[in-house]
Description:
Blueprint (H helix, E strand, L loop, with lengths): L6 H13 L3 H14 L4 H13 L3 H14 L4 H13 L3 H14 L4 H13 L3 H14 L4 H13 L3 H14 L4 H13 L3 H14 L8
Amino acid sequence: CMSGFDVRGALSQAVALHRAGRLDEASQAYKAVLKHDRRNADAHNLLGVIAQSRGQLSEALACFETALKASPKMASAHFNKGNVLAALGRTADAAQAYRAAIAVQTAYADARLNLGALLHKGGDLDKAITVFREMTVAIPGDARGHYNLGRSLAEAHDAANAEAALRQALALDPAYADARISLAKLFADNNNLTKAIAEMDDVLKAQPRNGELC
């Protein structure tokens, strides 16, 4: 680093501009950091986030890869890389990037959710179920893992385990409307209309203005 330039302070200022939505200024500020510290992984990563938000996917991918060369164990850069690869349709590479993020940071909920969703969308229901089940073990207090596991198990016609997972999601977050709706659908699909109606009544009581349900 060149003397007289406060890299850390400049990076903090760049992040503040970024958070304020002043993306052009933030981008210039990150580039100023990189002039003085070419291997600054945070600056490369966050420049990639700006490029991605503007739909500049190839540029974003290059930024994330440069960040990872400088800091191979940067979980957020692996995650961001996975998101760009998924958007580019490079599903296998995206899955690998999400797994790399999880390997660095076990409790990376969004990486686990995105990996499961990617596999689910690609038609690999069994692998998606495995990923969501692993999430419920690694991050048991996150209702989203239980919800996605329950929804996927319902698709796999494993009604008993699907119900248990959805009930666990609701135990963690009683206001989780999507989990309750999925539970109602599970009962309806299995011809238990009394239970299905009871669950929908609970949703309507909690969200009386939810036009989607009326």
